Amino acid sequence: MALQPKDWEDLKIARQLLENQGIAVKITHMLGTPIEKGFEMLPGNWRERVGDVTRSALTKAIDMAISTMNHAPVQTPSNRWHKIAVAATGGIGGFFGLAALAAELPISTTIMLRSIADVARSEGEDIDSTASQLACLEVFALGGKSANDNAAESGYFAVRAALARTLSKATEYVAQKGIAQKSAPALVRLIVQIAERFSIQVSEKAAAQALPAIGAAGGALINTLFIDHFQDMARGHFIIRRLERQYGPEIVREAYEAIPEA
Questions:
Q1: Boundaries of every domain in the chain
Q2: Which pLDDT does position 9 carry in this prediction?
Q3: Distances (CA, A) of 54 to 50, 57, 79, 185, 246
Q4: pTM of the entire structure?
């Protein structure tokens, strides 16, 4: 089955979003300063600390973001309001520096997950369903290379394949027991696997905020760019899922891979 012209155009938009530049490149362009300078200013144990903070942030964000949504029919996502909210938390984090990351990241992550769910709903997802809720969480694994990745393992479908088994077990568990039981092994493994990728981008955000003279205004700008990145990942991801429901996963993937790189 061939994709309809409108769906083909949507698929091209999704590919452009999902295979685009990472957050580090975008931050570097915005600041006009290589982000590597910020990494040099982070403490030696910072990557380990970021991993702990990231796992904690994802765990706290899971049910808060979904439970606060108005489960209304499909509508345009409120991207602008979520950006304003995340910018405010970034401004506070930028003012107090790296020490505030552990307090700021759970709040920012919850707002971003709420925004991701909003995008999901606009693409026809039933956000009351377990599969849709965990697909929202999956977005945090997109657009960030793991330290163990090679080029073939960092593309959109490669990341989804890497998460597929863990995601399936977590979906089965949550459908039976509910998402509140976040200490369940199936859900813990999923969070750890997603956090491995999300923490790469959190480290890049932390490195940018470590640069001298970033301050509150810089923190707000970095957080705005951070949520903009994940809103893009969410839009691409849920366009793909919408098309998969219509045409089937194999047809969508073949069409996706046939699109020339920009």
A1: 5-258
A2: 96
A3: 6, 5, 23, 18, 34
A4: 0.85
